[in-house]
Amino acid sequence: xxxxxxxxxxxxxxxxxxxxxxxxxxxxxxxxxxxxxxxxxxxxxxxxxxxxxxxxxxxxxxxxxxxxxxxxxxxxxxxxxxxxxxxxxxxxxxxxxxxxxxxxxxxxxxxxxxxxxxxxxxxxxxxxxxxxxxxxxxxxxxxxxxxxxxxxxxxxxxxxxxxxxxxxxxxxxxxxxxxxxxxxxxxxxxxxxxxxxxxxxxxxxxxxxxxxxxxxxxxxxxxxxxxxxxxxxxxxxxxxxxxxxxxxxxxxxxxxx
Length: 257
Hints:
By secondary structure, the protein is α+β, with helices and mostly antiparallel strands. Helix content is 27%, strand content 33%. The chain folds into two domains: 3-81, 434 Repressor (Amino-terminal Domain); 106-246, Umud Fragment, subunit A (Ribbon), CATH 2.10.109.
């Protein structure tokens, strides 16, 4: 064993002798929403072994921990000791107030590149589409995408303006949008749409009588709209489904005097 491997093993043994099994905690963090069977298949480790690590708190040997780290694209040192970064951060270059990550092919092994488009989806009266250039990228850990069942999704980020979708979506929130959806089936949920040339984020509800789509806002101050089935191809195009909303913490409400 080389010196680096020996050092990692020593640290691994030191934590094993501690009063609290922190490796078990990190394994649970890696597990996320996946089942133990899904972990066994992904890591290539028997289900009974993983059950012992995560449920009973038994210690994985160094070779097995290395196998998990390689499958997840994470640092073995972090998994074994909790020290250092879970992921090696890609090199970052600052341009103005934005951070553009520059990754080599090796750096991208555990990250997915999600484009942010230079457009804003209106949660109000609608914004005309005048540009759809990629402004920058978000680099998302693939482990998180697997946990959220989004690893096969085609994703993009779009900013929002307006208040018609509050409290679900607020002005300035960023939307993670899944674009590889089945547009032939009746859609139900929150979507980024192009309606009459305006980019909007709205709740869609398919109806049969009359046939078409009801375009709704969560804010009751905005009345629903209706697009008849005969006008769908000319007026409505569904860009993608909103699968996550990223926003700023709400400002505190001052006490009532």
